[in-house]
Design a protein that fits this description.
26 strands, binds 5'-O-[(R)-(benzoyloxy)(hydroxy)phosphoryl]adenosine, 9-stranded mixed beta sheet, GMP Synthetase, Chain A, domain 3, 3 domains, Rossmann fold, 4-stranded parallel beta sheet, alpha/beta
């Protein structure tokens, strides 16, 4: 089995340690310590469960013993696909305590994404719920395991009134010693700007540094109550400051069963929620609904918004309508996270996407030849620092593309840096689509369309959308035979077993891709030309 590592050059690692950023804290040690200090305080609540810190540790330890007793061994990778349920936390910490490495999939992922992650990380087990939002995840996991010889264990968490992880938690195996803080704790997945997602190994030292600082920057304390609205396994929800930041601070994590504003408002009132996090389209929905319903949400102090650009017009409405402070967050699973600070002037809060967590985050804004642009001019964002990875797992080509020789990560984002160090996201240089915070690779969707026998070529572009931020439009050039109808193409793509958020919102059959894109042979230019022709048409209509 290919080991999973993440290393920084010695001189950088030494500095991060000497300056007290990497403290040697690990996830197992963190939970044990919090369970000792906050034993009787509520750690997490959600449908059918409310556990204090001592209970969370007890459940995590029981699961860890059970998994090792079943034959999993420390270092094994486990694909985790779970929704916003309390068991997500006992499962994640159970894996940490057993020395197993979670690979975090999203609930929306289907066979294609799961198989890609399972193969890439050589997972030995998959842990999921029987059903999530009506979909049969147990059957999907069984089918995957049947085709992947390495995937020997299908582990089902019985949520929704069931016994949770109890059946997996019997066994008396001994737990391993505390891990090396420089070792990889888990794998996150990339937004995938070209092709399918890449695997992002994060270490105890680097991730816990970002969690600890995020908790401070968002003002967390043991009195904090965090409402988990977005998918919990996403990096934003995990660590910015997310459920891990809240547990680090000794606060209370509330799992929301769905992202509807009505559900959120009810839980805020019932649990005294102080902080939550949304993507821009959801934030807009919450604002509009609050204007109508005037809910009792006086306990809410901070709303984080990130994952995609939050426009200033919308951002300005947060304080007057929701009565809380907006905190913009511009982050990425690869590392760098920027926050507006709670005491920044309102104008900075509504017009920028924040500044980096750390004084040791290095940020460069460069032109296409990697030369620095003048201060305040837009350019490509490059970064390296104490919690930004130096490499993806097992991906030499992507690594050569995504990192400079001196270790800066090429974010693909175009930003402007203000004299205060705050960044304003202007757009991006890569062709992925940011649909309500979900990142979709144009290339990946094009490949699915091209698999249809009557499709000769397809070009997928992002179109600005007032609800979603961006939506997916596919231009399809049919072959010689009977042209397929858009509805049929949509059915075809759905049948490809991919996450539903990747299915084009709009499919346009075209007679030629060339005439609209005179002389454009490269795909990026072709996408740009088609997007422009679409926008011009919209303007005239
Ligand atoms: C977060 O992480 P990912 O890995 O799903 O996506 C990262 C990309 C960024 O490179 C950028 O293109 C976009 O998402 N993005 C934003 C943004 N926040 C993320 N674009 C404009 N404005 C923002 N505020 O999305 C993520 C990870 C941690 C915290 C927050 C978000």
């Amino acid at each position: 089995m290919n080991p999973v590592t993440q290393t920084w050059p010695d001189d950088f690692a030494a500095r991060y340690r000497a300056e007290g950023l990497w403290t040697g804290e690990t996830f197992p040690a963190m939970l044990r310590d919090r369970a000792a200090r906050f034993a009787g305080r509520t750690a997490v609540s959600g449908p059918g469960a409310r556990w204090n810190y001592a209970e969370l540790l007890e459940r995590a330890e029981a699961l860890a013993r059970g998994l090792l007793a079943r034959g999993l061994t420390p270092g094994d990778r486990v694909l985790v696909q779970m929704s916003n349920v309390p068991e997500y936390l006992s499962a994640t910490f159970g894996l940490f305590l057993a020395g197993l490495l979670p690979v975090f999939a999203l609930p929306a992922h289907r066979r294609v994404e799961l198989e890609h992650l399972a193969r890439g990380a050589q997972v030995r087990a998959i842990l999921t719920e029987r059903r999530i939002a009506g979909h049969d995840h147990a059957a999907m996991a069984e089918a995957l395991a049947a085709d992947l010889p390495d995937l020997a264990h299908v582990l089902i968490c019985e949520t929704g009134g069931g016994e949770g992880l109890a059946a997996l938690s019997s066994g008396a195996a001994e737990l391993p010693a505390d891990p090396d803080p420089q070792a990889v704790a888990f794998l996150q997945i990339s937004g995938g700007s070209t092709g399918l997602s890449k695997l992002i190994p994060r270490t105890h030292d680097d991730y816990l540094y970002s969690v600890r600082e995020s908790a401070v920057i968002s003002g967390l304390s043991p009195a904090s109550v965090y409402l988990t609205v977005l998918p919990v396994s996403h990096n934003f929800t995990m660590s910015s400051p997310g459920v891990l930041g809240v547990l680090h601070a000794g606060g209370h994590v509330v799992m929301a069963p769905d992202p509807r504003p009505e559900t959120g408002f009810r839980l805020i009132a019932e649990e005294g929620v102080t902080i939550t996090a949304l993507v821009p389209p959801l934030a807009l929905k919450w604002i509009e609904t609050a204007e109508r319903l005037r809910p009792e949400i006086g306990s809410l102090e901070v709303l984080l918004v990130g994952g995609a650009k939050f426009l200033p017009e919308a951002a300005r409405r947060v304080r007057p309508v929701l009565g809380c402070t907006l905190q913009q967050v511009f982050g990425m699973a690869e590392g760098l996270v920027n926050y507006t600070r709670l005491d920044d002037p309102e104008e900075v809060i509504v017009t920028t996407q924040g500044r980096p967590i750390s004084a040791l985050d290095e940020v460069r804004v460069v032109d296409d030849l990697d030369g620095d642009v003048p201060e305040g001019a837009p350019g490509n964002l490059l970064t390296r620092g104490p919690y930004t990875i130096r490499a993806y797992h097992d991906a030499p080509e992507a690594n050569a593309r995504s990192f400079t020789e001196d270790g800066f990560y090429r974010t693909g984002d175009v930003v402007r840096r203000l004299p205060s160090g705050h960044l304003e996201v202007q757009g991006r240089a890569t062709d992925h689509i940011n649909r309500a915070g979900e990142k979709i690779s144009a290339e990946e969707v094009e490949d699915h369309l091209l698999a249809h026998p009557e499709v000769l070529d397809a070009v997928v572009v992002s179109i600005p959308d007032s609800q979603l931020g961006e939506r997916i439009c596919a231009f399809v050039l049919p072959g010689e035979g009977q042209a397929p109808r858009p509805a049929e193409l949509r059915r075809f793509i759905r049948g490809r077993q991919i996450a539903a958020f990747k299915i084009p919102d709009e499919i346009r059959l075209v007679e030629s891709l060339g005439t609209t894109a005179v002389g454009k042979i490269n795909r990026r230019a072709l996408r740009a030309a088609l997007r422009k022709s679409y926008m011009d048409e919209e303007e005239q209509a």
